[in-house]
Model the fold of this input.
Amino acid sequence: MGSYAVVRKIMICVVSGFRITQGRGIFVYMPSRAHTQGFVHLVVITSLTVASKRVDLESSASLYDFYMLIWKAFYLEYILLPFCTFA
Done:
């Protein structure tokens, strides 16, 4: 499997995870906070998608930067979780 296929599969998994959590937030936790949570997810998904298009698959530094961006997005979501789910 080539590098492009691996990056594509990673993006599918990450974006799917964000969409699932967004759906849970809208329908299960706090519908009143759905707009805030939806906006945060949209910004994160968009930045990850744009970054995935710019990854140079031949460059270790570029792949590392993309990997770190995924972790930063994860931690951002984790930090913002209490603000999106609790009143």
